[in-house]
């Protein structure tokens, strides 16, 4: 029987020095646990999830806990795009594609459609004590053109390092934009109930301006003087009340895409740390942007390691930091961003999470 017949079998990885251990399942090539040591040397599981990983498939809340998201991550205006890309939606015809809508009252598509890559069972290609590689074939699912074949490799290394790489090829021209949708709480709900006191730094002086449906307007807004300026590390809640105005007065929090400044690829684009646990996370990536989402709508039972299912993950109890491309660039030609891949042009995605401690 093939590996993808066991989508919830757990693969455990551990670095030889014991600094980090992780668990994954084939469903969504998903990270289900990530244990790193706090400033006292105590291991904490710093990602959200389920004790029963089969709930990744059945939870109606569908928070996308730590999965690989594709074929096109984040939001797509109207669930539609054209090749060549255009600003305005085109009538049905050659080169015009419609993906099932599932966001903002079905006005847009989120994370690749109703059954994106996070809702698919990947196959294990190979694994060792420190690495696992998963394989997925997207056979023109959800209305995208062509067949995309992807391999994802998760690796843990000495020194508290988690690396994830993805390589994808396409049989014909198609948009590809992936992410790993990890929810972080560096205290692991031991000493705090939310991430508002976590310190965040994002090496970005611009953020994607969005409309009321969280779709880009085409403007890249300057963060200077606004609550979205994290170029110098700030507590997540440093100007919390002002975030209400960013979200049409509906809620407080962040769900925005920061565009990285031009910095060396080996320098962190995002840093996050907690004074309580002392755990610090530095993220480097080959991606040009990061979506920061402060878990504004979380409402699902916790893992035992986080207090047990009688308690819930709730709003702002974690922050998702998604390394990705410019959101909905396939409908925003004024940016000049090419997210169309095919024969002769492969897609690659890589991110390294490095953990350390602060006093």
Automatic annotation (TrEMBL):
GO molecular function term, any single one: carbohydrate binding
Q: What Pfam families would the database entry show?
A: Aldose_epim (PF01263)
**UniProt-listed InterPro entries:** Aldose_1/G6P_1-epimerase, Gal_mutarotase_sf_dom, Galactose_mutarotase-like, GH-type_carb-bd
Which Gene3D superfamilies does UniProt cross-reference here? 2.70.98.10
Output the superkingdom of the source species: Eukaryota
Q: Which UniProt key words apply to this protein?
A: Carbohydrate metabolism, Isomerase
Protein's GO biological process:
galactose catabolic process via UDP-galactose, Leloir pathway; glucose metabolic process
* Family to which this protein belongs: Belongs to the aldose epimerase family.
Q: What is this protein called?
A: Aldose 1-epimerase
Origin species, per record, is Phlebiopsis gigantea (strain 11061_1 CR5-6) (White-rot fungus)
Q: What is the lineage of its organism?
A: Eukaryota, Fungi, Dikarya, Basidiomycota, Agaricomycotina
């Amino acid at each position: 029987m093939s590996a993808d017949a066991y989508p919830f079998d757990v693969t455990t990885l551990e670095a030889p020095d014991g600094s980090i251990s992780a668990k994954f399942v084939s469903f969504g090539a998903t990270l289900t646990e990530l244990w790193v040591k706090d400033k006292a040397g105590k291991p904490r599981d710093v990602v959200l999830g389920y004790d029963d990983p089969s709930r990744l498939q059945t939870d109606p809340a569908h928070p996308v806990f730590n999965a690989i998201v594709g074929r096109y991550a984040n939001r797509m205006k109207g669930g539609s795009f054209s090749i060549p890309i255009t600003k305005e939606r085109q009538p049905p015809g050659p080169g015009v594609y419609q993906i099932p809508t599932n966001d903002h009252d079905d006005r847009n598509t989120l994370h690749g459609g109703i059954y994106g890559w996070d809702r698919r069972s990947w196959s294990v290609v190979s694994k060792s004590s420190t690495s696992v590689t998963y394989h997925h074939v997207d056979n023109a699912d959800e209305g995208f053109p062509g067949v995309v074949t992807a391999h994802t490799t998760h690796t843990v290394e000495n020194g508290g390092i988690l690396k994830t790489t993805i390589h994808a090829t396409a049989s014909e021209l198609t948009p590809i934009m992936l992410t790993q949708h990890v929810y972080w709480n560096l205290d692991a709900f031991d000493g705090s109930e939310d991430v508002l006191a976590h310190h965040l730094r994002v090496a970005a002086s611009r953020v994607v301006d969005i409309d009321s449906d969280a779709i880009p307007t085409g403007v890249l807004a300057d963060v200077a003087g606004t609550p979205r300026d994290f170029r110098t590390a700030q507590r997540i809640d440093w100007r919390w009340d002002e975030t209400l105005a960013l979200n049409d007065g509906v809620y407080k929090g962040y769900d925005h895409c920061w565009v990285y400044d031009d910095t060396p690829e080996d320098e962190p684009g995002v840093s996050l740390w907690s004074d309580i646990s002392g755990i610090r996370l530095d993220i480097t990536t080959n991606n040009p942007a990061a979506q920061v989402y402060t878990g504004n709508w979380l409402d699902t039972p916790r893992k035992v390691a986080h207090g047990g299912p009688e308690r819930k993950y709730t709003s702002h109890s974690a922050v998702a930091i998604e390394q990705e491309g410019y959101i909905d660039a396939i409908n925003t030609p004024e940016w000049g961003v090419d997210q169309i891949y095919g024969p002769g042009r492969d897609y690659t995605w890589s991110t390294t999470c490095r953990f350390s401690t602060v006093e």
